[in-house]
Amino acid sequence: MADTVKRSELVALVDMDGTLCDYQGAMLRDLERLRSPGEPALTSDFEDSPWMRARQELIRGQPGWWARLERRQQGFDVLEELRALEFELHVLTKGPANSTNAWAEKLQWCQAHVPDARVTVTMDKGLVYGKVLVDDWPEYIHRWLTWRPRGLVIVPAQPWNAGFSHPNALRYDGTNLAEVRARLRAVRDAALAANVG
């Protein structure tokens, strides 16, 4: 395939937090350690308050926190499909403005877990080119699709994207990998056909 279509025409952008790694699980675990005895137990949709944001910043600022995040299987399922179809892999992750160690540690994580991918740490995912985006966060998906109206988004299932719907997006819940594969193959085949013509 490499002879008939340039790899740069088959760029797949893959999110890190919530897609390739379990950011939410690690954050919940560490917030639970900071919970006082009188506070209610946390759930995955913990409240967004100033004191909760301060705790999250404290956690994210710990040296090595980002580099130690655990892999998330759904993200790696899609990653393997992209590899099999010979997409050029790019990890596309948002860099927090108030946690500069995150930028370096996200790169370290990618080098350890996805060494065949290029890495872009950005503050605006909508500006980055790709044929495919794999991301769990609806706000980032909308922003990217604004500039890529023909792009395809694979959405690894998370509680916060349960109601998300878009004609160019397919939610992957771990049971519909064949459908994901078919949609990715269609993108690859369209790029091949455009290159031939």
Automatic annotation (TrEMBL):
<feature type="active site" description="Nucleophile">
    <location>
        <position position="15"/>
    </location>
</feature>
<protein>
    <recommendedName>
        <fullName>5'-nucleotidase</fullName>
    </recommendedName>
</protein>
<dbReference type="InterPro" id="IPR036412">
    <property type="entry name" value="HAD-like_sf"/>
</dbReference>
<dbReference type="GO" id="GO:0008253">
    <property type="term" value="F:5'-nucleotidase activity"/>
</dbReference>
<dbReference type="InterPro" id="IPR023214">
    <property type="entry name" value="HAD_sf"/>
</dbReference>
<dbReference type="InterPro" id="IPR010708">
    <property type="entry name" value="5'(3')-deoxyribonucleotidase"/>
</dbReference>
<dbReference type="Pfam" id="PF06941">
    <property type="entry name" value="NT5C"/>
</dbReference>
<dbReference type="GO" id="GO:0009223">
    <property type="term" value="P:pyrimidine deoxyribonucleotide catabolic process"/>
</dbReference>
<comment type="similarity">
    <text>Belongs to the 5'(3')-deoxyribonucleotidase family.</text>
</comment>
<feature type="active site" description="Proton donor">
    <location>
        <position position="17"/>
    </location>
</feature>
